[in-house]
Amino acid sequence: MPPFTAGLFVSASLVASALVTAGGWNPAAAGHGQAATAGAERLTADTPRTTTAGNGFIAPSGWSIVVRGPATILEAPEGGSRLALIDVQGADAEAAVTAAWAAYPPQTRWPLKVTNDLPDRDGWSRRRQMSYQTSPNERRDVAAFALYADGQWTVVIYDMAQDVGEKRGAQVSLVFDRLLPKGYTRETFAGKKAHPLDAARIAALGAFVEAGRKATGVPGVSVGLVQDGKTVFAGGFGVRELGTSTPVDADSLYMIASNTKALTTLLLARLVDQHKITWDTPVTTLLPSFRLGDEATTRQVLVKHLICACTGLPRQDFEWLFEFKDLTPERAVAALGSMQPTSKFGEMFQYSNPLAGAAGFIGGHVLFPDLDLGTAYDRAMQEQVLTPLGMTSTTFDYARALAGNHAAAHASDVDGHPAVAAMAINYSIIPVRPAGAAWSNVTDMLKYVQMELAQGNLPGGVRYVAKAPLLERRVPQVPTGKDSTYGMGLSVDTTYGVSVVHHGGDMIGFHSDMIWLPDHNVGAVILTNGDPGWLIRGGFRRKLLEVLFDGRPEADAQLAAGAKTYAEQLAAERKLLTVPAEPALAGTLAARYSNAALGEIAVSRNGAATIFDFGEWKSEVGSRTNPDGSVSFLTTEPGLIGFEFVVVKGQTPSLILRDAQHEYRFEPR
Fold first, then answer.
1. Locate the Beta-lactamase-related domain: which residues (predicted)?
2. Please, are residues 173 and 24 in contact by the beta-carbon 8 Å criterion?
């Protein structure tokens, strides 16, 4: 099943990126491993602790902690989902992991799926990650991470239910963010002055992007840099589309996906500045028909809650990814009435695209109450954001974007080769477009970043928006780790001692980031047209800091390792998958399936291939027999690899599709 990120949507291989960049994973079902609760301490606040060898970390509030021999075991409040930090001796990483599993004996043993080596980082060397093959009906993710420092190994076992892992992902990041060897101090750029981005430093950034592009197979990357109010670089690397020689440049349009959210909250900031709303205005006073879950929840929702990822509303993206052909903004907003938060407001980070969509539509409705929600938003964005900022190329009109200088979407095929991606599913975001449907380019996005750095002023000193509502969007609403927070459509990261404001964006074949350092008057935009472009854009943030502050050269090795891990993860998944689908298994399927929320699947054959047609888009599927004997069918279209339909045995089998916190059962018709 393709995981989702704060950048909107990415293909299944993002898992590899998450492992490399955060050291984390995505989690599992209750009842595994020895009971960690007996004699455990329940924490009432985020608490600094150490492993048995003295390595520091932060234990999250609400979790239980217990020490058993060399193992320090953290258990999530839901029970049965754990992080185990185990200090052991061993000749190598494999021996260390074997010793760690012996100290943390689970009731289930999972086959090893793939092993990846990682570069040195944060005082740890000889880093290695091991991913295990769980069965989909376990709804569990399991991994081990071996880290070496001071003559000893620390192994982290990640053993969690998928719903808990998604819900508590920020708390998992909290543990990894400060898991450091005893006595180690992370590099900091606090108090340093940024170097001018001269020709040599710009060339170093360009070389990083070009090397990353080649390592990942991403066809094209466009980059822009600003410093002290001036554009110091704007250009492109690579091509618009595989098999062509037309280069990308600063004017090439890309889908910017969730970077759209910052533009949407800029619209809201303008409305605050114009005294039409406040951040604390109850939403039902602006749109009386608005509902979220039950009445008690609805009454709590203020304007800021629509876009803060802090309401506890979990991802529920499948419903617009599969059924968007006839979806209108009105219906998308109304659907929120059936969605219920799974944590309290402000308690933890949970990212909701439909709720962010409602934020923009309600902003447009405030200005143009007589128009339908989509038209009102489009007009409001044009008049309040795009035209004043001079963003003349930025558009929500796909036909306009695709008719001109634009980058085509790319992704790996099922065998790991770069290919043109399935574009049809990228139309799914249009009905919730304030969350991620804008197309833009480096030229336009730099104008936006310049305005942010100028704290609401346009070139020449003209005031565009008041400073207070603009900056309120950066104020932490919920933590996403120890050194990172989410505001309103913007993230702030202080990992290396300087404040970095940014937001990522991900749709099929498009991955981007916009970045600025408000205390150093430096900003950047990076747009990519291929999976795994998230590796390039994520590494670029670190590389920019290295170039500006003469930091340790880590970004290049991390990106190279990320690209290698991505390829190895794809290859490991491919070995488990039969394409075309096993005829005997495919032959048991009904010709048509339906689900009330996600619509219909038409099953057909094209030669040896089995095709799942969802109406809005379709894909050949492969088959896989899981360790527990269950059977899955997985989509294989480039960019759509990994939507997993698990067979429920019967005379005519049903199919189950899951995200981390929801389950959709397709019945035969």
1. 208-533
2. yes
Collect the ranges in the chain with pLDDT lower than 50: 1-35
Q: Is 562 within a domain? A: yes
DSSP class of 386: I
Q: Is residue 189 domain-resident?
A: no
Same domain, 142 and 238: no
* C-alpha–C-alpha distance, residues 218 and 411, integer Å: 8
Structure confidence at residue 526 (pLDDT): 98
SS3 318: helix
Per DSSP, the three-state class of 357 is helix
295 & 401 share domain: yes
Which helix (H) or strand (E) is 620 found in, with range?
strand 618-625
DSSP state of 383: I
Pairing, β 152-161 against β 71-75 = unpaired
38 token code pair = 């007996």
Measured distance CA(221)–CA(530) in Å, rounded: 9
**CATH at residue 143:** 3.40.1000
Coil, helix or strand for 374? helix
Residues 94 and 127 in one domain: yes
C-alpha 83/C-alpha 64 separation (Å) is 10
Report the C-alpha dihedral over residues 386, 388, 390, 393, rounded to 10 degrees: 20
Q: Which two tokens stand for residue 296?
A: 């008690």
Q: Is residue 36 part of a domain?
A: yes
Pick from 82, 87, 89, 97: which is nearest to 50 by CA? 87
* Domain residue limits at 42: 14-177
| CA distances for 130 relative to 41, 135, 138, 424, angstroms | 29, 16, 19, 34
Q: CA torsion, points 189, 193, 197, 201, in degrees to nearest 10?
A: -40
